[in-house]
């Protein structure tokens, strides 16, 4: 719609370096990095059971959003209009809906539902972050208003729906691995059958992490049984996050060096599988053995 393009033009009319940097920072809050940070802090330091739900709800939402992108195939504003600039790194995926907005909306909804009543600042902070991400994605020329609005709607709706789905498992939440593996197999099989694996990097990353985290959690809950609050000193929480986080990042970038980008099932699926199995299973094993 014309007014959506005019809105982007208006936002970019007074663009400058400082404003662009600020919006890139806001946009960062819609990336997987924020989700991963929150997820590992919850899993390693606060509440493994809730972290498992948080992780699965988020990943499922991302998967649905990326399937929608592949279905609608809407060109990004900077590709569709010569006078709309990309003020940040040019995204190579499709525009509708906004994955960044879906991401922060999902995180915001889950944390507000869980902690909003006890910590009043949580819904306020994350509502503001969600709005800032939405505006930044338009200012940077990556999305239309309808993209970010649909991303917002999807993030809220999917997080509520998948949260309700996992609630059905009650204290046996680890058995979500069964439908989870079926879902992953169906999606990968469908993408392969359509010849879309090469175009589905984000979906394969999410599925790799999804499968590995659920397998890791299943094993950890039954055999490792690490109590995140047993050694509850703040210094130990910091040590877990620093050590675990450094290894996680190391896996991500080290595997990039030797895994072939031309084979998405290795470069995307396997890389994120190893990262997630480390976070869900091997990190708690080390924490427990080291008593940290």
Brief synopsis:
The chain has helices spanning 2-12, 17-28, 32-46, 48-72, 77-80, 99-115, 121-139, 145-167, 177-194, 201-224, 234-258, 264-290.
Task: Provide the fold topology.
Layout: H1 2-12, H2 17-28, H3 32-46, H4 48-72, H5 77-80, H6 99-115, H7 121-139, H8 145-167, H9 177-194, H10 201-224, H11 234-258, H12 264-290
Helix pairs in contact: 2-7, 3-4, 3-11, 4-6, 4-8, 4-10, 6-7, 6-8, 7-8, 9-10, 10-12, 11-12
What does this structure look like?
- This protein folds into 2 domains: 1-168, Vanadium-containing Chloroperoxidase, domain 1, CATH 1.20.144.10; 171-292, no CATH class.
- Helices cover 75% and strands 0% of the residues.
- It has 12 helices and no strands.
- It has helices spanning 2-12, 17-28, 32-46, 48-72, 77-80, 99-115, 121-139, 145-167, 177-194, 201-224, 234-258, 264-290.
- It is globular.
- The termini are far apart.
Secondary-structure-based class equals mainly alpha
Largest sheet: none
The total strand number stands at 0
What's the CATH C level of the largest domain? Answer: Mainly Alpha
The general outline is: globular
Please tag this protein with its features:
mainly alpha; Vanadium-containing Chloroperoxidase, domain 1; 0% strand
């Amino acid at each position: 719609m014309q007014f959506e393009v005019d809105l982007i033009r208006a936002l970019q009319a007074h663009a400058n370096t400082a404003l662009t940097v600020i919006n890139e920072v806001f946009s960062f809050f819609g990336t997987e990095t924020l989700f991963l940070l929150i997820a590992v802090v919850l899993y390693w330091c606060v509440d493994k059971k809730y972290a498992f739900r948080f992780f699965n709800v988020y990943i499922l939402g991302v998967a649905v959003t990326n399937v929608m992108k592949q279905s609608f195939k809407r060109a990004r504003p900077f590709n569709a209009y010569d006078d709309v600039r990309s003020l940040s790194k040019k995204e190579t995926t499709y525009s509708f809906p906004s994955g960044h907005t879906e991401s922060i909306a999902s995180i915001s909804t889950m944390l507000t539902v869980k902690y909003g009543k006890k910590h009043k600042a949580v819904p306020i902070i994350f509502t503001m972050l969600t709005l800032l991400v939405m505006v930044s994605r338009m200012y940077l020329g990556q999305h239309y208003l309808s993209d970010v609005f649909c991303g917002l709607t999807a993030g809220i709706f999917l997080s509520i729906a998948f949260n309700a789905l996992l609630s059905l498992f009650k204290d046996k939440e680890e058995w979500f691995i069964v439908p989870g593996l079926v879902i992953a197999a169906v999606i990968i099989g469908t993408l392969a059958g359509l010849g879309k694996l090469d175009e589905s990097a984000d979906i394969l990353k999410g599925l790799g992490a999804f499968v590995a985290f659920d397998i890791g959690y299943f094993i950890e809950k039954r055999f490792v049984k690490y109590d995140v609050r047993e050694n509850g000193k703040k210094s130990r929480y910091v040590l877990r996050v620093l050590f675990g986080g450094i290894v996680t990042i190391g896996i991500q970038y080290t595997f990039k060096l030797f895994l072939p980008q031309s084979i998405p099932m290795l470069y995307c699926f396997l890389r994120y599988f190893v990262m997630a199995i480390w976070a869900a299973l091997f990190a708690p094993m080390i924490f427990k053995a080291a008593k940290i």
